[in-house]
Amino acid sequence: MNVARDNILGRVRAALRVEARRPLAPTDAPVFPPVTDPEARFRSEFAALRGEIIENAGALRAFLNGFPKIATDGGELGGKIVGEPNASVRECDLGVTSCDYLIAQTGSIVVTTLSAGGRAVSVLPPVHLVIARREQIVPDLATAMALLRKRYDKRWPSALSIITGPSRTGDIEKILVMGAHGPKRLVLYFVD
Amino acid sequence: MRVALFIPCFIDQLYPNVGIAMVTVLRRLKVDVYYPAEQTCCGQPAFNTGYWDEARALARRYVDIFADADAIVSPSGSCTAMVRNFYPELLGKATNATVHTYEFAEFLVKRLGVTDVGARFPQRVTYHDSCHALRELRLKDEPRQLLRKVQGLELVEMDQAETCCGFGGTFAVKFPMISYAMDDVKVTSIQKTGAQYVVSTDSSCLMQIDGYLRRVNLPIKTISLAEVLAST
Amino acid sequence: MTPTLRQFEHDATAMADDLRLRAVIQKNIGTYDIAVAKGRTRFADWQNARSRAAAAKWETINHLDRYLEQFERNVLANGGHVFWAETAQDAREHVLQLARRHGVLKVVKSKSMTTEEIHLNDALQEAGIHTVETDLGEYICQLRGEHPYHIVTPVMHLSKADIARTFQEKLGAPLTDSAEELTMIARAKLRHEFLTADMGITGGNFAIADTGMIALTENEGNARLTFSMPRVHVAIVGIEKLIPRFEDLALFWPLLADSGTGQALTAYSSLIGGPRQEREADGPREFHVILLDNGRTRLLADAEQRDALHCIRCGACLNVCPVYKNIGGHAYGTTYQGPIGSVITPHLRDAREWSHLPYASSLCGACTDVCPLRIELHHHLLHNRRNAVRRRFDNVVQRFIFRAWLCAMQSPARYAIAAKLGVLALRLGWAGPLLKPWTDRRDFPAPPKQSFRDYWRKHERGA
User: Fold this and answer.
1) C66 contacts chain B (CB < 8 A)
2) Are C69 and C34 members of one domain?
3) By C-alpha distance, which of B104, A112, B140, B205 is closest to C274?
4) What pLDDT does residue C462 have?
5) Which ipTM score applies to this complex?
6) Residue from the list A22, A146, A180 with its beta carbon closest to the beta carbon of C187
7) Is the residue at B107 inside a domain?
């Protein structure tokens, strides 16, 4: 039925009749050092990436006052904190979402279309505010991947992103510039 | 232990003093050496250019000529790599001769366990890592250990010590413009050290560097590690 | 000499002599080197990370049929479509067909070397579809009508001033020497394109067999916008991009980010596993994956060089290559530059036409040492050369020279005579056409009075 498919798979099978030399076997030695204090590690990695953390409710109110047009993921957590959205994602100047996990090892934030209200709201707005709980911090990427599998293996969301700092580029003379296309600022607020 | 000398063809023809210096040092260390006169070339020029059948014929010669040697020592990381790393691929197996071929500095440090050979060379030198010694034979520290024990010698590292000089055998004549640019990068790095001498395990690299230095009249000389170690 | 080789020699010579350009590249790679050295300290055991990645990729590539079928099944189950493209033309035509079916007027693209390989932009533009590269570097390339200079860093060869002039000429932007201002000019221009494009086209850094997902690695957010905003998302991936499991990314993502830019992870590591679902707020209505062969099965059939398909396109071998540093990316004339490009291009394209590239290397081996997949690149270059000679892509003169040379080297007597003749020629100042390219710009050593073997015969015989 599908000639190209059959041709390609046929060529692949023919090619693989001869096995390639096996590479050096890996050892059991861990590839990454263990993460000890996950929250402290997350904070230091996140800060190094130029992520910002809002430490208390007062600071959050002050921060939100700077953004007249806010879009949210429509989730419960965001609603409780910032109230109803008053702008569409295309017009807002702040996008507010939840997330799945925070990764201590790399200072990353894991968002999926389900945890963060689709694809656009966590990448299109000029500033992205993530509302998270401290319990969402996991030690490393491998743990996050294993938990994602557990959570979604029955039915995966159509897209997920591991966000590691605000958007950036080094394309011009390797000079670091923030906010190439995605959010220029990535802000995190922990709820209790 | 009797040690066979493997003197690669261009050392034989262009840099005999490097071979003689190696013999001098080995004798100073009371090593019994002999030179199988039937040896010619290891076949690397053919091998690197893609003529593996031709190279294989010379590989067979080599493993026959050196079949009974306890150890084979050569003042060239490049030709040693050819024998030890690439002959097994050409011949389908490692043999006594391929396994027991050593680059000179490697032989001194790893096989004899010697780092001080009683040399004196009161000059400021910088060391050039030949690619084959560094990345095929993994000799990074051994030549430097030997140099550090040379009386009066001051070793100054260059920032591009591990960068290829641009020789690469037929590469240097097939793509002279690229080879020259690489030579240029190397010499610039050498100059920055203020060294009077560039030392290396490999005379082919030194020929490439020296050819440039002399053409532009720079007051820096090249010298093989063997010759430094033979100096008193 | 083929026109391709002539062009290569011409371009490589021009680049190697361009000291300004060499300095720009050196500065760029110098910054990369510092970042990578720092990033490497994040690993407890980078060598073992390489071994694990090589083992995982070996498993995939050597059972590729199985993983391709598994991948396809999962993409279909997720509501996506899979198209198998045997050639570049098949892939281009399928994209055009999709564009026509969806009434696409504008396409946004995120950085993809695979789409470069199949010359997709030209095909789209010829069909009257406005096509915009959105990665900053690629956007600059597109404005200048150039191909990427480097698989990871497309405008490595340009200074801020070069880019400012391009923006002035092509966009009417005011001149600036601020990288930030230049970036903001591009951001503003491209934002509008994201919001009005009908189709988003991406490549794929990895294709995950057991979940039917495409993984994309980027820093700018343009890939995320490309697969989020338009109605249709098309991902074009080579069949070698498969990895078995979702969890394998916990190794491959950091490994790629580290070797690519010295980052722990790039700003956005994304996975796309289908079109918008009914439970989701937004996203494309359709998701298409094009699995591209285009010569890859030829490389696969060469068991000796098969592991060149393990490459994850991190660019580390380019950055460390003294040839790349001196001739730059454009001189190669290929989609994939540097050591990996020289290894695979003779397989992916015409083997005879590109047989010179494996020779354009001093075989220094620096590439092999930095490859996160442990691909023995410089040994592969030797295999390429041997294969070229076997297939008689060499020239007759060279073949004759090596035959004659072998004849001399097989006997010490003939060797001695040949050597004497050579030395005599040198004494007479006749370096010959063989050495001339070298001696043009260097002094050849004066031949010694006697060879080592003569010395030994005189002084040592019987000693």
Assistant:
1) no
2) no
3) A112
4) 55
5) 0.97
6) A180
7) yes
